[in-house]
Amino acid sequence: METANNLEIVHDVFPYLQVYKNGTIKRLVGTEFTAATYDPQTGVSSKDVSVNPKTGISARIYRPNSSTKGKKLPLVVYFHGGAFCISSVADPKYHDSLNVFVSKANVVLVSVDYRLAPEHPLPAAYDDSWSVLKWVAAHNSKQGSEVWLKELVDFDSVFLAGDSAGANISHFTAIRAGESDEGNLLGVKISGMVMICPYFWGEEPIGIEIQDPVRKSMVDKWWEFVCPSNKGNNDPLINPFVDEAPNLEGVACDRVLVCVAEMDILRDRGILYYESLMKSQWKGKVEMIETKGEDHVFHIFNPNSEKALDLVKIWAAFINEKN
């Protein structure tokens, strides 16, 4: 029988999860499950695949069912959000929004089911995401066995995309792809990156954070929980603008789209990422859009709303733009 002492909450990571003294982790959101299947509303099919049975890393693959008449499609490797500690590829909110994305953009999409903190402390999420990208890229050299990737994908048009923590993962995956040894192992060039409400942070408040100390304090606790270190919220993994962070010029793609939302507490970090990339020695093209009157990752809560669909159209145009 559990004692009252063991049921004491030792970590309350609002609004995501609670950790009890006996080690039990209670996730408060992001635990729902929906199966991969054919979606009649969008005409998109999906299925789950195992990437590494030893570690349990998997992915959910989406494809449009419309006839492409032999034409190869762009590939999007997508990293979901959730502050590194909640959600999954089976989360109905992500599943529904990605069905819409795949339908509107006419792409093949691989949604990465990386392992979560605190059971799997960082950098597990980054390493898992890199492993899935390598697994995907192997199909370009005929080493993979997944039919949808082998038959449908144009490996000259590969994009990274993610929201919140997933956008953070996208950035560091692109940095890793730019490192000579790692990039050579990948064997695929990344065409572009879509950063949606990116989760970056820092010790000193900027912009909207200055006027909102309550939410600032809440976000401070997220990173301190998933990545406890003496660097706090100036850890280079959450603050890519500190001196010890990898240079932004190492982002291994030619085009980046940064999407922010006006009411989002993380908005100004996304703007700073855009501005810093513009000022860096990076040779690519970066664009930024801001959705007025909306908050953090609003598109996944109502993927068929007018503003969410407008955002998806922008992603689709970005991905399908011909250089």
TrEMBL record:
It comes from the Eukaryota. Gene3D superfamilies: alpha/beta hydrolase. Residues 76-299 form the Alpha/beta hydrolase fold-3 domain. Belongs to the 'GDXG' lipolytic enzyme family. This is Alpha/beta hydrolase fold-3 domain-containing protein. It comes from Datura stramonium (Jimsonweed).
